[in-house]
Amino acid sequence: MAMAMAMAAAAAAAAMAAAAEGSDASTGAGAGRWLPPHSPSGLVLQTVEMHTGGEPLRIIPHLEAAEEAAAVGGLSLLSLRRQVAATQDHVRRALMHEPRGHGGMYGAVVVRGAAAAAGAHLAALFLHGAGYSAMCGHAVMALGRFALDYGLVAAPSCPETAVHLRCPCGPVTAFVPWDGHRSGNPVRFHSVPAFAVTTDLAIDVPGYGKVVVDIGYGGTFYAFLSAEQLGLDVCSSKTRDLVNAASAVTEAVKKQFKLHHPESEDLAFLYGTILTDGKDVFSEEPTTNICVFADEQVDRSPTGSGVTARIALQYHKGLIQLNQTRTFRSSTTGSLFTGKAVKEAKLGDCNAVVVEVSGEAFYIGTTTFTVEEEDPLKYGFFFK
Rounded to two decimals, what is the model's pTM? Predict the structure, then answer.
């Protein structure tokens, strides 16, 4: 099946290339064209489009410059992320920003070969409107399905296949249903060790006053607090008001608290703030949150790395036990993820837990994007 899909993908690519060169289909020159003409030196970018819980994922299956840098330079994934940011950021802007993307777009560059060594099936760099992330749970779930369906795992097993991924924050494993022909749902993944950074930290937020936040790490760092502390309701307040408040908290925490990562200072940055309904004590009922990350970008899903960090905080506080499953709801789409702490771990000197997060990822299409060199907006624009 994987071989057939690979052959089909190759045939589709050949057809696209032929169309781009203006070959005729059978009814005359140009009649078979279905890829717009583009500058000889312009980019042609093929993507696979997915979403997990409503949060988009634009997958770039092959970025030659990234794979060459990984192979030639022997770079770590964090170093590769820096190099791609320095030399290929026009690709991110072209695909994440308008007119090809939008304010909530998210992406992943798949890197194979040298960068996916040490037992991993693939490595991934995560892209968003403002830059590059260290971890993305919704992307991991989608990439787990992608890896099986596009033949990146040599011999998938039924009823579930483990897909090993390298992320900038470290190795993660996705567990993907497989029926012998195609991948399915739900997909679950085991995180890098997640931990509580600090709890009950008093922060002065301009315009809102003093609030108390927790900070957790789930592959990247988040501040957590109930929306009620900011005079809001995560379920009923206007999204714009929630975004403004969360962004103010993020900026205040960055100024008033210094983060440290036990293994790499490249990871020591606050990615965003997650506002919750305050329901942190274990319950069978869902708890609702909204994640505002990067430059006021809103996650449409419950946020995989955010669920990871929140579970780590709840476990640290003694509010949940190992293998107690909680359900997390996105306030934006109503989509659901589940999460549970599955085992204790260490990250440097930090007491940590490995968290399992589960959700549903779906394909929505494939796209070929072109860039015309004379286009003054060829690498996109960011509109807020």
Answer: 0.90
pLDDT digits (tens, 9 = 90+) for 223-274: 999 999 999 999 999 999 999 999 999 999 999 999 999 999 999 999 999 9
What is the spatial distance between Cα 358 and Cα 322, in angstroms, rounded to a whole number? Answer: 16
- Of 159, 166, 156, give the one whose Cα is nearest residue 76: 166
The residues assigned a catalytic role are 136
Q: Find out whether 188 and 174 touch, Cβ atoms under 8 Å.
A: yes
Cis peptide before 186 (omega within 30 of 0): yes
pLDDT tens digits along 346-371: 999 999 999 999 999 999 999 999 99
Task: Count other C-beta atoms under 10 Å from residue 267's C-beta.
Answer: 22
Region of residue 300 (left: phi > 0; alpha: psi -120 to 50; beta: else): alpha
In this structure, what token pair is assigned to residue 158?
């039924």
Going by C-alpha positions, the residue among 111, 63, 112 that lies closest to residue 91 is 63
Q: What pLDDT band is residue 9 in, cutting at 50, 70 and 90?
A: very low
CA distances from 346 to 164, 172, 179, 193 (A): 20, 15, 35, 7
Cβ neighbors of 44 (< 8 A, separation 6 or more) are 16, 20, 35, 38, 368, 369, 370, 371
